[in-house]
Amino acid sequence: MFSAVCLSLLVLRVNEVQAQEPLSADSFFEVLSQLHFPIENVSFQWESTIQYIGGENVEPKVLAEVNKSLSGSYLYRNDGSMRVEVYTQPAQGPMRRRSVSVEGSVRRELAGVPDRGVKHAEIGQASSVAELNYPAWPHRILYLAYFNTLPSNIRSTFRHEGWEVVDGHRCLKASLNPNPGVPPDNLLLEKLWIDLERGGHVLRLEHHHQGHLRLRLSDVELRELPMPSGDLVWLPIHGRVESFGWQVTSGKKPSLKWFRAPQVREEIHFMAASAKLNQGVTAEAIKVQFEQGMPVHGTHQPSQTDDLQLPVPVHEAQNLLDQSLLAADAQLGEFRAISRARSRWSWGTILPATFAVMGLVVLAWLAYLQKRARE
Question: Structural domain of residue 58, as residue ranges?
């Protein structure tokens, strides 16, 4: 339990760090580790949207692929393992689903279209820092896993650049080089503004590549959420990511062009009511499972322990969804960009029991929207 005494000591340590000028890399990562220490594991449901907001003349079929809504579930453990369930609904076309887990150096993934079966199964090497940092996914605004798995060669590039106020909160401004050793003319610089007084979360982030602002995180909203001990911890529940690059065609050859104004906007929202902190996210719940005999691509192969139970019968799944409608309705105010379609996922698989409840709520919400549309 993270006691009041520990909290008081941590506050004192944060105050000491704020008095240091400049702050060393060791001191920064030490206090950040202490700020994140109370969060042993976390799970929540999330939703997001991606929208093209630039002024280029873009073909409708391109816009139909770029503009989309996403929703799903997220699991994280402070041993660095994580899992993301993603339902993606493009502006046109069928919904797609991905289940991705990372445990140590192993990444496992299932991908396909609901009602059409698995299209892709893969086990491969996890790429550490960049893992699961896809457009409009949770890691765009939640940096627990990022800092927890940051290699020492990147940590050593930390530079303290002072203190600045972001959205009314005093933040430590720092920079990191995610690709140390690259030539200066290809430098990728990451600038971060971190709120050490509210959990050590990133309130603003900028990616600069070859002098261009490539990506910006802003409008991050933090909220205090309860742990079973009764203590409160800060977590981000909303953030906006804007990208400044866009593929343009000059003649017949497409090229990446950088703009002063953002071209693509991502809005990411975590359902605060669904968040569960330190409530026993197990390693089994993290791991994406494969059916025995399923063709799997990649450098690793599933073991005998990857066998699954049979899928839940359709009529039982329907009963569970119907029972979950009331709970989904209670979260109506927090859902803003959820997909319009209903998905009965027909892979020959079943989520682990501790994870299935979260998935059912997402599916129940999809069922609820379809039911509302028929009324």
Answer: 4-374
